[in-house]
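INTERNAL AUDIT FORM
Audit reference: QA-55
Scope: verify that the stored structure record matches its stored sequence.
Auditor: D.O.
Record contents follow.
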Amino acid sequence: MSDIINLWEIEDGLNAQNVGVICGVDEAGRGPLAGPVCAAAVILPEHLEIPGLNDSKKLSDKKRRELFPVIQEQAVAYGIAFASEKEIDEMNILQATFLAMKRALAQLDGKADFALIDGNRETDFGIPVMTVVKGDSRSANIAAASVLAKVTRDRYMEQLAERYPQYGFEVHKGYGTKAHYAALTEHGMCDAHRRSFLKKFYGQK
């Protein structure tokens, strides 16, 4: 119970300031060498208790996947969106992450008045925002967004693995593991790889 109460502390402080409807925003997949970056935006009912809800990185894959439909069913609203590998290469990963977040927020259809953004970087999201370092373990709404983004991206990478079985995307989800680099050495890049992330590996400027 203490975890649930703690997860609502930031939202409670903002509600005391009458900021309006609060959503949480988080991303998954900023660091991988392949695949898109995914973002989610979530509005939970105030003080909703979802047992086990926490930072998605601290949860097992099984637990995240169990929580995914629970969050979808109980959220007031949610949005999930991607920015592609091509967009990451064209605008850099930070701007592509912001783009995915904006797309996720747009799916809320204006229901949010204020956004809690995981991390310490922000841009113009069209509504007032507050960045929260390690927000996925400090805010219920960000924690929920973290789960939606992570599970959605993992599922996407598993589907990508069926198209490109030689890379092992279903295992490492595009991150730079030893096995992934070995596959890159043997097979080169595929369309799902982020060219800008692999210039150094291939000795390109």
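Auditor finding: record pair retrieved intact. Confidence is low (pLDDT under 50) at residues 1-5.
Action required: none
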